UniProtKB/TrEMBL annotation:
One term of GO molecular function: transmembrane transporter activity
Name of the featured protein: MFS family permease
Residues of the Major facilitator superfamily (MFS) profile domain: 15-425
One Pfam family from the record: MFS_1
Gene3D superfamilies according to UniProt: MFS general substrate transporter like domains (1.20.1250.20)
Superkingdom, natural source: Bacteria
Single GO cellular component term: plasma membrane
InterPro entries, sorted: MFS, MFS_dom, MFS_trans_sf, Sugar_transporter_CS
CDD domains membership: MFS_ShiA_like (cd17369)
Length: 443
């Protein structure tokens, strides 16, 4: 009995590591582009195209999000048919490969308009990959978890985002510190992109060793898989898909103030702060986001997924305007304080997401449902959040209009949580239909 228990524990630890490390690598790749959109690409790739180069550069961050739903549909279909693990490996390789190639693309000065076009194509490939990555990682973690710890287990693929942000900002902070501004724009920015080749190898080795989800294996052995999962998903669960997307949109839009590069760009280009201290402040925020995401997952196992979400959204809403007021001080310590406290609401409304989505859908359509809700939420929330924020700030000259925009999305996300039933603790092998009675929230 002891040996069996130890073996099960070892496998669960391997799953946690695989989902966390793989997601970290995926989002390191994604964030490197998002951050460089404000620091590099606006001048080196899009400046010669005319118009507002910064807005155009941020728009390429958002355009990739439009391809996330397609990536989610493809990966969801294959994930519900072939399994979670195969999709995790495929999406990791696609994301990392695109990132490495970005580091090799010549600038517009060297090859003309072909440079931004190639960069955009590779960014779209990243969008397709990101659309399928999260659903597989989240479900693998939650479907391996003990019933009473799904929220906590599911928070580990979630912390891949702040760890990826931490890693991306850390590498860029080092590179900007050891190069001059001219060297960084000429070749230094390419180093973080090329480093992804090493990370792909590490992540692939870890993910190959992970066992398939036991819940999915039960469905596969019973031959109850849906031939085309997206059809029953939208026929029976379209309201859940929409509500899940609205909940994530509120969190994602706020998160992309830092992960999408807007705060970094605003602090350096408008407020005149140096790049290195801004990146360091974002790194501390990423650490806070990591901790509060784990706290959100843990808390959701005790008080319910939706109560945790509501607490997170209310904190996010309350801090929205003080957040931008402190940033406007153009002081390193106040910037760090603003970002760290902003991360509290982000973490509490992000940690429970894997478990919430997994418990919302039946096994036969779970990957498709989780991935598509996530991808649509990313389109509605983070896709053009940096672009919209930049446009609002540029047109009004007032950064608090950005706070108003984010506050509206937060209220919408908060309202959506009141329309979703909390199914915490339900058996994942027999997930409830939307019309069933919810499990009462825990007190």
């Amino acid at each position: 009995m002891t040996q069996k228990s130890h073996a099960i524990g070892k496998e669960k630890r391997r799953v946690i590591l695989a989902t966390m490390v793989g997601t970290t690598i995926e989002w390191y790749d994604f964030f490197i582009y998002a951050i460089c959109a404000g620091l590099v690409f606006s001048t080196e790739f899009f400046g010669a195209l005319g118009g507002d180069a910064l807005i155009l550069s941020f728009a390429t961050v958002g355009i990739s999000f439009l391809f996330r739903p397609l990536g989610a549909v493809i990966a969801g279909h294959l994930g519900d048919r072939l399994g979670r693990r195969a999709m995790l490996i495929l999406t990791l390789v696609l994301m990392g490969g695109a990132t490495v190639l970005m580091g090799l693309v010549p600038s517009t000065a060297a090859i003309g308009v072909a440079a931004p076009i190639i960069l955009l194509m590779l960014r779209i490939l990243q969008g397709l990959s990101a659309g399928g990555e999260w659903g597989g990682a989240a479900l693998l973690a939650v479907e391996h978890a003990p019933t009473t710890r799904r929220g906590f287990f599911g928070s580990f693929p979630q912390i891949g985002v702040p760890i990826g942000l931490l890693l991306a900002n850390g590498v860029l902070a080092v590179v900007t510190a050891v190069t001059t501004a001219e060297q960084f724009l000429a070749w230094g920015w390419r180093i973080p992109f090329l480093l992804s080749a090493v990370l792909i190898g590490i992540g692939t080795v870890i993910r190959v060793r992970v066992a398939e989800s036991p819940v999915f294996e039960e469905v596969r052995q019973s031959r109850e898989q849906s031939g085309l999962p997206i059809v029953p998903l939208f026929k029976h669960h379209w309201k859940l898909v929409l509500l899940g997307a609205l909940v994530f949109a509120a969190n994602n839009a706020a998160g992309y103030m830092t992960t999408g590069g807007y705060v970094q760009s605003y602090s350096t280009e408008v407020l005149g702060m140096a790049s290195s201290p801004v990146l360091i402040a974002v790194m501390f925020a990423a650490i806070a986001w990591l901790c509060t995401t784990l706290l959100g997952g843990w808390l959701s196992d005790r008080i319910g997924r939706l109560r945790t979400y509501k607490i997170g959204f209310m904190f996010q809403l309350a801090w929205m305007f003080p957040f931008f007021a402190l940033i406007n001080a153009a002081n390193f310590w106040l910037l760090m304080l603003a970002l760290v406290l902003f991360s509290v609401g982000l973490g509490l409304s992000y940690g429970p997401q894997s478990a919430l989505y997994a418990e919302m859908y039946p096994t036969k359509v779970r990957y498709s449902g989780a991935a598509i809700s996530y991808a649509l939420g990313a389109v509605l929330g983070g896709a053009f959040a940096p672009t919209i924020a930049q446009a609002l700030q540029s047109s009004t000259g007032n950064v608090h209009t950005v706070g108003m925009y984010l506050a509206v999305l937060t209220v919408i996300g908060l309202a959506a949580t009141f329309l979703i039933k909390d199914h915490s603790g339900r058996t994942l092998g027999d997930a409830p239909e939307p019309e069933h009675e919810p499990v009462p929230e825990r007190t």
